[in-house]
Amino acid sequence: MNVDAWMDFEIWDVLFLKNYNTRLVVLSTFFLGISSGLAGSFLLLRKRSLMSDTLSHACLPGIGLMFIVVTLLGGNGKSLPLLLMGATVTGLLGVLLVTAIRNTSRIKDDAAMGIVLSVFFGLGIVMLSLAQTMGGAAAGLESFIYGKTASMVGKDLEYLMWITVVTVILCVALQKEFSLICFDENFARSLAWPVHFLDMLMMGLMVGVTVVGLQAVGLILIVAFMIIPAASARFWTEKYRLMWMLAGAIGGLSGWVGASVSAILPRMPAGAVIVLVSGVVFVFSMFFGASRGVCKIKSRQIHMRRKIGRQHFLRAVYEILDAQQTGGNFTVSIQDLLEKRSWSRKQLQKHISRAKREDHIETVAGNRIQLSEAGYAEAARYTRNHRLWELYLIRFADVATRHVDRDADHVEHVLGPEIVRQLEEELDTTLHGMTPPESPHCIVTEGSI
Amino acid sequence: MIWMEMDTWIVLVGVTCAIACALPGCFLVLRKMSMMGDAISHAVLPGLALAFLITGSRSSLPMFIGAAVVGLLTAVFTQWVSQFGNVDRGAAMGIVFTILFALGLILIVQSAEKVDLDASCVLLGNIEWTPQDLMNIGPLEIPRALVVLASVMLLNLLVILFFFKELRIAAFDPELATTTGFNAQVMHYLLMIMVAVTTVASFEAVGSIIVIAMLVVPPCCAWMMTDRLGVMLFLSAVFGALSAVLGHMAAIVVPPWFGFDDSASTSGMMATVAGLLFMMVWIFDPRRGLLGKKVGKYILNRSA
């Protein structure tokens, strides 16, 4: 078959879900992505993401034990509902044990999770090793460890759909309760909410999603399903509702895309491809996320640093002019400015050239600079804000006059116009108008302190 | 119970492995990073796969190096994600190790035609097979795994003895460590190197379950019983060794009770026994145990 025919044939088949098997896998991982994204959001917000790791490992002994018991009783040991039931029981037990160890001993959260994870996993391996001695029937049990997306059957999809529906309904119905528990558990307790019950409900949701997803992607990759979509969504928003929706969407889409890719390309295990797709989404979100992404935060920092630099520079110029008591916009020598604050010549040069670009400086001639009209007004405004704040601190916060300059420095850059207006009202009304008030302390240069 | 020479070797390998893991594990538990062992032992898969693809053989040195490098990278990436992305450290760990694991799986499946390597045999070295791979040390024939693990154990012991003071301050108070003039970050990475090397060396020899369990459970048992780091290190080694010995015995003895003819997985049993030991300490420890606290209260009430 040549490449074009292959393209025509397979890709469209996959994208339009024509093939029964593909349809099953893509839809299953899509639903799994949605439900695990939602359930994972709670874990992430409560800083318990690795609980999913513990939980998925804790399911293993239940599966092995159920298989052994049912087979010994003469039933079909590989009946999926029974195995999932076993997994649910030990999974819940594991979660409860982590809580019990944390609450009744000095062992911390992480170690409690580590203990339960490793011991239950060890127990699970013991069970599986025993199950293996019972003959060939146990052969498929390892698929719970590494996942076998290709072997999914209609029942899996059905379960995944149900758990997704339940998760979405619970999240919508209990969004207020869940969000409060995520953010302030103690406050919820003080409101006499059934915190314990809600907590169990949340954990139960997580157990349900994990148990149903185990068969599909295996007990290690299900952890990625739980953590990565939620963590990616966190970079985009500060609103929990939006975050939940985004987490569900990212999970669902990675499931869809990943499963499709694995169906198109040869020898690509679906679970791993889906995790890689969501990993790409995570890395992208981490750098370019609209609210907490690395780039956004860096640019915010740079912006703030520039703003502070500009305000310091203009105020320094104004204070020098003010000290000359000539009143008005004259030239200022760079030497004076250098002594004004603890900045190096290079830093000052940077401030000057930036101020020039912003049209705050009229002329730079030799060693002297002169502010422009706009620059002088800005300088006066910054100085005024600074001094208003100083006066406020002295009058209402009992800050000593000697220290007030430094204290005002920390806050003045974030004073918005409303707060300045409030300051004006609190302080003397004679301070209205654009001229800055007298400085409450004698203005000194950094060097002379 | 039939005890053969083979069983002695298995127990010896188990004991060395348990001690080698328990020593750095103490610091992991104290630094609240207990899940690191689990993360590393999954994350090294792409390192193993790459080393295998490049050298084309299953000789242990390139595999060891590949795995150890990726193991260390796991720690570094986790640090980055949690620091630059401001993500909770647990979540960061989960993100990093699952992505690496997925990458490893794809590498292995992609090259499945060329090479005979599957995830389960890479991840689960088997302690029952160690006596079959012997090497000569002087006049003795010793399992190769025992030699590897004993050297790792000695190495860990030496590093801990040599940097005891630094590791201790860095574990309990990283800020103090930094103010007293040595970098807590350096100690962090030293610990991570130690954990990565131990993890890789052990699970290549005996399987990942033992590693994950022995890094966490014996140190936790020890920490329940003492407040002194030296004592804790010693006790965790004892608990580790105990779970190894009892675990192998249980693997032989217990299954017949339930009507099974064969023995169970030794590594799984070692982890299980470690868990039981922890449970005993959790309940019966005279000072901090559930029962111990009750008894203490009772005595106090009576004397009052």
Order of helices and strands of chain B: HHHHHHEEHHHHHHHH
CATH fold title of the largest domain in chain A? ABC transporter involved in vitamin B12 uptake, BtuC
Shape of chain A: elongated
Number of strands of chain A: 3
Helix content of chain A: over 70%
Major sheet size, sense and barrel closure of chain A: 3 strands, antiparallel
Count the domains of chain A: 2
Enumerate the spans of chain B where pLDDT stays under 50 for 5 or more consecutive residues.
none
Secondary structural class of chain B = mainly alpha
Q: What is the CATH homologous superfamily assignment of the domain at 5-216 in chain B?
A: ABC transporter involved in vitamin B12 uptake, BtuC
**CATH class label of the domain at 5-216 in chain B:** Mainly Alpha
What is the average of the pLDDT values of chain B?
A: 86
β-sheet strand percentage of chain B: under 5%
CATH architecture of the domain at 5-216 in chain B: Orthogonal Bundle
Oligomerization status of the protein chains: heterodimer
Look at the structure and name the CATH superfamily of the largest domain in chain A.
ABC transporter involved in vitamin B12 uptake, BtuC
Using a beta-carbon cutoff below 8 angstroms, give the protein chain pair with the largest interface and the number of residues from each chain. A-B, 62 and 61 residues
Helix and strand element order of chain A = HHHHHHHHHHHHHEHHEEHHH
State the distance separating the first and last CA atoms of chain A: 84 Å
- Rg of chain B: 21 Å
Radius of gyration over C-alpha positions of chain A, nearest whole angstrom: 32 Å
